[in-house]
Amino acid sequence: MDELDPVIHQPTRLRIMMLLSGIREADFTFLLKTLCLTNGNLSIHTRKLEDAEYIETTKSFQGRMPRTTYRLTELGRARLREYWDALDAIRFRAVPDEGV
Amino acid sequence: MTEQNDRDSLRKVCSLQEIPKWAERYARNRSLPVLVNLGLTAAIVTVCIAFTLYAVESKVIALMVASIALNAVITAGTLYLMISGRWMAIIHWPDRVEGIAIPASPSPERIRRTRRFDWVLPLPVIAILVIAKVLDVPTQYWQPMAAIYVVPAIVYIIGRDGWTEWPYLLWPALYLQHAILVLVGVKLYIGVWYMDVFFPLGVYAVAGLIAAHIYSGYALRKLRDAARQCNRETSDNG
Questions:
Q1: Residue among A23, A90, A94 minimizing CB distance to B101
Q2: Mean pLDDT throughout B140-158?
Q3: Residues in chain B within 8 Å Cβ distance of A21
Q4: What was the ipTM of the complex prediction?
Q5: Which of A7, A56, B24, B36 could lock A22 by a disulfide, CB 3.0 to 4.6 Å apart?
């Protein structure tokens, strides 16, 4: 499979997916600060990932503070693996052209 | 999506693949809430004990009454904070700055399996202390005797779930070093067996937590570097 998933291929969404793939879950603040995004930007991209069912969102309260956490779904994990497989395939094809 | 775009995306592969690794290391070593919890508890207990001892030694009735009142107020205040959930809010104040990342936990089956016999873990320590008492071993050697079991037991506790990381190993390593120093004649004991055996255990546990906290800070910097480098590369690509 050489076609890259356009939902994951977008750089910000790819970074969100990669970050979530290393842990069980992260909250909005952690993604915001670590990936150096704006509130709006992060909201838009997490919404797209949620619509594709690659991540799941949980809204709760910690004391009086609202808290939104995100975690990668099994589908998201599988799609991310396929994405890297596809990228590896492209890389393999690209090697002769780059003279490596 | 053109072939050129695909090739451009290859440039950011390296820094991207660093992201999950450092995210996991950060989350697994994040011990700051535990340290805040321990620090707060220690501060409260220290204030209570210090004031009570001072009042008892002064033999002034008014001070003793004041110490009882202070202990009652502090206990009531602490209970209120715990029941109202504010204690947890205080402990987790660093989360408001950094955010929260929770490491992937081992499966519940694995946790059940590895922790089934946890109640047995303290028993050999008691057996060692009883043997030391029966054999009339000088109290300064009780800690090295206990270390024979305690060090591998802590290493087992740290590694059993595959959840924690190497900075926590500073805890058993320091306890072992303490035992060796006592054996070679360094005076690291006060002659009260429970203080000599258990106090270093607590102190070195805090040292392990601090080491984990420092490493989690390093991991967070590496994670942010990887994430931002990848962001820059993307911007360079237009």
A1: A23
A2: 93
A3: 20
A4: 0.88
A5: B24
